[in-house]
Specification:
The complex is a heterodimer of chains A (about 750) and B (about 200). With about 750 residues, chain A is α+β, with helices and mostly antiparallel strands. Chain A contains 27 helices and 23 strands. Chain A is elongated, with a radius of gyration of 40 Å. Chain B has about 200 residues and is an alpha/beta fold. Chain B starts with 8 loop residues before the first helix and ends with a helix. Chain B has helices at about 10-15, 30-35, 70-80, 140-155, 170-175, 190-204; strands at about 20, 50, 55-60, 90-95, 100-105, 120-125, 160-165, 180. The chains are: A alpha+beta (about 750), B alpha/beta (about 200). The interface of A and B includes residues 36, 39, 40, 66 and 69 of A.
Chain lengths: ~750, ~200
Amino acid sequence: MNATLASDLLKEMEAEAPDAIRLARLASLAVRIERHLLRRLRLDLLPDADVGSEADLWFSSIVESRGSSSFVIDSTIALMLRRELAREPGTFNLAAKITKLEHRHMPALIQLEEKLHFIAAQGGDDVLARIDEAMAPALRALRRAERGKEVARWAMRAMPRFDAVVRQSGSAVAMLLLASELLGGRRIVRERTSSRAALDQIAWAMQASVLSERARIGVEVTETAIRFVEDRGDASALELPRTIPLLVELSWTSDDARVVNLVEAEVGNTFHVDYGVNTLVFRTLDGSEYLLEKHHINSKDSMTTVFLGHKSQDASAAEALRDALSIVFGRDEIFLAEEIDKGDDWREAIDKALGEAKCFVLLYTDPQLDWSWCFYEAGAFAKMGGKPERPVFCLHPADVAPPSPLANLQTVPATPKQLEKWIRDALCRIKGCRQPSEEEISPRIEKIEKLVEDAGPVQEKILKPFIWIDPPGDEQNWNDESALSQYFSRATVSIDAVSATQLGYASPPGGKHLLAFLRELASDAEWSDDRVEFWIAKFFESLRDAAKERLLFQEAAYFRHESGRILRPVVVSYAKNSSGTKRRLRVIFASELGSPLTDNPSPTQRLSVGIRLAVRTRLEVLDPFLGRMSRVHRDKVLSKRPRDAIARRNPVGLRVTEALDAILQEASAHGMRPDDVPPILFEKPAQQQKYEEIRNRAKASWDGLTKKALEEDQKGMGKYPESERLLAELDKYNQAYLDLCLPRLRELLRRGHQ
Amino acid sequence: MPLFSRMLHRGILSAALSTYVDEGEIDLDDVIESLAALRPLTLLPRFRIATTRRGVQLLIDRAAGMDPFLADQDELIRQLGDILTNDSREILYFVECPTRGVTDRPGGHRRPWRAPSSGVPLLLVTDLGIGGPLVTEKRATVREWLHFSQMACRLGHTAIGLVPYEARRWPPLLARAMVLIHWSERTTAGAVSRASRDRLVRHR
């Protein structure tokens, strides 16, 4: 069973019978699972699981074989389960202890197999040493005539079921060789043997008879790999003992460290070598040594098997794809156009590569890009006749549709299943090589999937809720403020179902006018025929600015939705046709924390907002600048420090007027405009009169300050005597306003409460 | 590690297999009432008591679905020996459903099922076709089991099923037609008594 299928099965079973899968995890260390082991594991480690989970596991699809007294879990799945179990060391150790106890009467080889499962799943830096130690008795038994065959048969059954780390140990490699010899030259495991063990680690176990017959094999060396080929006399060759599998130790020095590998010297096997290594040492089982110098092979001289077509911006992805595909093809067999040497005729090089290649792989990433050149290359490849079965593969992200213009296109979505199928069924067939093992192919698939997905287009997600606004088609004089409201009131709203639901509609309202739509949303809409609500007017101004393609200048218009939330409609995009006769504006409704805007505040609202803004004036204008304008000028505008580069360009007067303007804008948004007739806030005429007097004087100081501060900036002297005087006046009136209005607000609030 | 522990199996099995007979103490209240009303005492009224005297016909399912519980079945036979004599228990084996025939020993010659004497409870150790291999053509159907339980009921027997799956997985029709007991280490004699009582109430 391959890893993908195994993983799918586990997920399926996890959903259907979670207790059974927990039980399977606990039992995964056992070679065979009998009733008593299952019962003991359940009762001791899963006391909350029902007895039925035993039968659920017994008859589940993860079971490879079952008899009337025991069953065996599929080896790939058991391996996964053991790895999962090892993540909980406490339970892992208990399960191992119970398995060992319940299987104490089992044959020694079964107990050894379970011990090796335990060591491999436990891992650690010394895992190989512990495996070697555990296997030593079996290896010795293998050399004895009376038990040798029994152990060899066990090795043939058990070896493929082990975690790869077990097979990489020196003892396992020695066992493979000896067992094969004992079983008449039969291959013990299908996958290629590859180990970090040195020859010395296994030499002690080898019998002279194993080393007697000889074989010759050719070796080709490229920049980053060696490849074993038939010995035709025209390449370097090794003579080595004819073991099954043929093994040779390959070593080199990289970064002052000696790298040693046991490699299977089988025709077609390619083994990667560190880049930049020039000298390779081969040592055979009988101790013979061969020294091989790498000769640098220029890609243009080698034969192309795969033409890898891609966009220039995907060059690094293409390079990574070539590396990942080295599981099948040598690096030089995959043609990448950017590696054509400068000065070469690139057209000729491409034609040559297209002519030689046995397949064309198009790395298709983003449909928004212009693929005409890649399609041309693919088309040229397909048209080159006389070479049947030259497929064109289109490798693309799973969520991107493949292109349609290519004939005979075989699409390969970058999913683990499809990639595995592609590599095994198509690429290995083209190459004529043997199938890579599960351990070899899985990381490559993962890498390809990631690189293709990473190269794919960025998917835009639109925030919701949003609406489309279609203004009326008639011409609009954007500068006519009076007509603005009428114009946008007649705009039509389109909305999708999700947004409609989020905005409180049961179903999307069709063809509604904007003004009615907005009023339906707002909890305090006035529905007046002759005027629009203040926040709607502000929003229309935003729409006008947006229609002039000035999305940055939007009025802060927010309102209280019928649900109680405060929402702010924000124009996020603007679309129009080429003639400009059709326009559309997309508006999202964002949550807002501020209080909703109003055009007609009550006295309590006026007082509370007014007091808050008086405090804001104190904190943001008076405290930082009153009596300090010249000092701020020295500290900021005259500063020589690099960090004050921006500060130097903003004179003090401008800072004061900007701060005042922000406060004025907020007051205006809440319906408090200095040019309006003073509102009635007090019942007693004397108080009302005093309020109006403060208001008028403060307004005069405010206006004077905004004017004088800029004038004194212009002088550039860094002196602000007039501004300071007006700030002092403003401070006086601000304080007087607070003294008068705070008791009044308290009075109004208390009254409202009573 | 049997499903009914050595400590509890007597209580559980007794509760499951007990039948009721009018052989208890004399019901004095009833006697006085009859005499006071000048009614002749034709029968001496006695209280009902539970007994396992009638024995049991043990029917063991040897279909593949019960493979995980073969050892438990053997243990159950031994446990029954603790509360019943050999001549009061008849042990029969079947595959999937007794309507398909029974044997005297596993793998023996199959013959049609014959009911024991009236009133003898039937203890069926089975998965009712709930479990077993994913693909099997032979699995017993609910209809087959229903047919069997109705036939047993007509002949005056209580069909009691020992099922190694939780109650939520029992076919609802069968759960109503038979006394089903969860065959589990968590099962108690009290729960079994309640299940038997519930069935009596249902059939009254």
